[in-house]
């Protein structure tokens, strides 16, 4: 991969784990393209770099081209080789602020009585309702408004995770939730 600045001649390659495999550094500086992959609310995979999101715009036999999710007004993009995940080309300058979103990791466990419980950011949630293919989970705190919706396979669709109480003290042992 070459640096995205016009006069810079830095060069580096990545392996599949997005670790630098080789690099050529000019002026003592190089820019690292670190990516993580997340799912959007409709379940499609997005690549994320420094808070900006990219969607898979085109797939050929050998490469994947990713465009900024604000492609209509921002032309940031990059191309990855499918074989080893190395970068072929990147233009990563955006003309807008990164999107405002949050990444939510949820752990599902079972209470002693067999009921399911969800744990998110240290807070516990009970399953309040099932609608079609989604579950609505509400905070176990008294009168707390914290809640989220997740699909049957655990992908979070919407979340309101503001709490006005301290998280409960608990441990999870072999998938079983126990209060401390």
Automatic annotation (TrEMBL):
Gene3D superfamilies: 2.20.25.240. One of its GO terms (molecular function) is zinc ion binding. Signal peptide: none annotated. Keywords: Metal-binding, Zinc, Zinc-finger. It comes from the Eukaryota. Residues 39-96, 108-165 form the FLYWCH-type domain. Transmembrane segments: none annotated. InterPro entries: Znf_FLYWCH (IPR007588). It holds the Pfam family FLYWCH. This is FLYWCH-type domain-containing protein. It comes from Operophtera brumata.
């Amino acid at each position: 991969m070459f640096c995205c600045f016009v006069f810079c001649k830095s060069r580096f390659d990545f392996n599949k784990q997005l670790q630098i495999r080789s690099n050529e550094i000019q002026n003592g500086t190089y820019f690292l393209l670190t990516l993580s992959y997340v799912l959007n609310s409709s379940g499609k995979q997005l690549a994320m770099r420094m808070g900006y999101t990219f969607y898979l715009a085109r797939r050929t036999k050998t490469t994947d081209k990713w465009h900024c999710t604000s492609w209509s007004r921002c032309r940031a993009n990059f191309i990855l080789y499918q074989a080893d995940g190395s970068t072929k080309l990147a233009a990563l300058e955006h003309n807008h602020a990164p999107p405002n979103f949050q990444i939510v990791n949820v752990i599902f466990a079972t209470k002693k009585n067999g009921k399911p419980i969800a744990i998110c950011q240290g807070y516990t949630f009970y399953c309040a309702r099932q609608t079609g293919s989604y579950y609505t989970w509400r905070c176990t705190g008294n009168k707390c408004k914290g809640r989220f919706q997740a699909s049957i396979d655990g992908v979070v669709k919407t979340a309101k995770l503001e709490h006005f109480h301290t998280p409960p003290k608990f441990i999870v042992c072999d998938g079983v939730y126990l209060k401390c």
